[in-house]
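Figure 3 (text version): structure tokens given as input.
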């Protein structure tokens, strides 16, 4: 845990990560056009993050050689009913007019992570009619997202308080808050929940999760036009993985498992990651998952035909209670492309 307050140096690294994340998100939103390959969008965004010091030299102008910049959450583009972890294993998936794409990505500077999420309706033709269902759920989710941020400003606010407000907002809009999409406290080399001894969030203990001065938090809200009951797409091949808090026990049967484990321990910490796939790597991944050292971040979706919209940001609560957002507020139109745009605002 970072303690009661962040050092000035740590704060500067969070802000640097936030500036990179904001710039990359703008780039991704521009790329979300009909016919664009989802995997290529994700890979290009990750490349920009990994090369953040050269891609965004103004962010690291003081002393770029002494810091590292990398991915704290691989870019995902979850489309329509998909809630999260939408990253295809191959390049066949493309965006279509009218798709509702929810993008999430993360950046770290020297291990201090920032994550951001935004949703956009894909549209390139003025003749294309955006589904009313999509526009409605985007407006509702934006309203719920700002309601969650308002709650964080209240001293002593708990996750239970935020969940109640967000659910009430969803009901008022005739939508559903997606179960399982929640806020997390973030730490160095950890976007939430990796280190041993941290309590997992359930309906019964959410009141114990308090937003405290000195903490860094991911505020994340997702609304669905359906019931908001997400199910794991177990039939799809996992692309994203993350280290668990489990201790290594015994030796590895597969040499590739040992090699991957050492690489993950050295380079990834508690950050999710993508592993290049070949036969040897798959055997290593399989053993690490069997030993509960890795867990698969498979895609989760609501019912087919529904529309899910997600917003996410990173905030730092100063010791005096003032809340600072580490990333920009993306008040862009909810549609992308050169044709008709539908503005989304608060009612």
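Below: residues designed for each position.
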């Amino acid at each position: 845990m970072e303690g009661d307050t962040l050092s000035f140096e740590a704060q500067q690294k969070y802000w640097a990560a936030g500036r990179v994340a904001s710039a990359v998100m703008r780039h991704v939103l521009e790329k979300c056009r009909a016919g664009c390959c989802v995997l290529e969008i994700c890979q290009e965004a990750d490349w920009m993050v990994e090369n953040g010091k050269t891609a965004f030299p103004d962010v690291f102008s003081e002393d770029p050689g002494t810091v590292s910049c990398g991915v704290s959450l691989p870019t995902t583009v979850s489309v329509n009913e998909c809630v999260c972890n939408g990253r295809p294993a191959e390049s066949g998936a493309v965006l279509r007019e009218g798709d509702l794409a929810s993008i999430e990505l993360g950046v770290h500077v020297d291990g201090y992570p920032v994550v951001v999420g935004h949703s956009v309706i894909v549209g390139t033709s003025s003749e294309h009619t955006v589904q009313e269902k999509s526009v409605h759920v985007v407006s509702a989710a934006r309203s719920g997202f700002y309601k969650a941020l308002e709650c964080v400003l209240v001293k002593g606010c708990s996750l239970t308080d935020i969940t109640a407000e967000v659910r009430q907002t969803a009901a008022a809009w005739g939508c559903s808050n997606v179960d399982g999409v929640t806020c997390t406290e973030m730490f160095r080399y950890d976007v939430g929940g990796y280190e041993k001894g941290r309590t997992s969030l359930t309906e019964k203990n959410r009141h114990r999760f308090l937003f405290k001065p000195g903490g860094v938090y991911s505020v994340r809200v997702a609304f669905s036009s359906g019931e908001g009951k997400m199910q794991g797409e177990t039939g799809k091949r996992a692309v994203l993985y993350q280290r668990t808090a489990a201790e290594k026990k015994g030796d590895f049967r597969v040499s590739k498992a040992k090699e991957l484990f050492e690489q993950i321990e050295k380079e990834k910490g508690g950050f999710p990651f993508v592993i290049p796939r070949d036969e040897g790597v798959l055997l290593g991944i399989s053993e690490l998952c069997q030993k509960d050292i890795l867990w698969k971040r498979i895609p989760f979706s609501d019912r087919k035909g529904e529309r899910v919209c997600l917003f996410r940001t990173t905030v730092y609560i100063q010791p005096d209670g003032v809340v600072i957002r580490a990333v920009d507020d993306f008040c862009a139109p909810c549609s992308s492309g050169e044709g008709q745009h539908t503005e989304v605002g608060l009612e």
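The chain has two domains: 8-236+298-336, 239-297.
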